[in-house]
Design goal:
TIM Barrel, three-stranded parallel sheet, 4 helices, 6 strands
Length: 155
């Protein structure tokens, strides 16, 4: 590989099944849910707030296709949520390696949750997901884990 660019600020958008697969069963009722936004796109219901995919899924978009609402997972490049597809996008852009940061809107939802067990489970669920994602190719993918807001003993 001839690339010499390391992108230290990439983000992975939560795949539709992330919380079903990585959050314990007892927390599924409170887990983020995939819903439809006002323009028929996919959005996450985080507590009482609807957060459209929109600009957080901007990777591989052009100014003409970029929009805030009405974005559906089915219309996105697989590299938005899957490691194999992400490597394809990195190759397309000439990126040798990348470091992934957590999605802030979702982490904020868990961080400020009053139920500390749910908060910790959400952080651990995301961290386990991003560990698995980056493990697809450790020579090119690294991850920043989300520190729990439940105390130093949980870190």
């Amino acid at each position: 590989m001839k690339y010499k660019i390391i992108d230290c600020d990439q983000h992975v958008i939560e795949p539709p099944d992330l919380w079903k697969n990585y959050l314990p069963e007892r927390f599924q009722e409170s887990a983020p849910k995939l819903v439809e936004d006002e323009d028929g796109g996919d959005a996450w219901l985080l507590g009482g707030h609807v957060e459209s995919l929109g600009l957080v899924a901007a990777m591989n978009q052009t100014p003409e296709t970029l929009k805030w609402t009405g974005v559906r997972y089915a219309d996105l490049h697989p590299g938005i949520t899957e490691p194999k597809g992400r490597l394809e996008l990195m190759d397309q852009d000439g990126i040798s390696a990348a470091v992934f940061f957590p999605p802030q809107r979702t982490m904020i939802y868990f961080m400020f949750e009053e139920d500390k067990a749910f908060s910790l489970a959400g952080m651990q669920g995301y961290n386990n997901f991003i560990r698995d994602f980056a493990s697809f190719d450790r020579s090119r993918m690294g991850a920043i884990w989300q520190m729990p807001a439940t105390g130093i003993d949980d870190a």
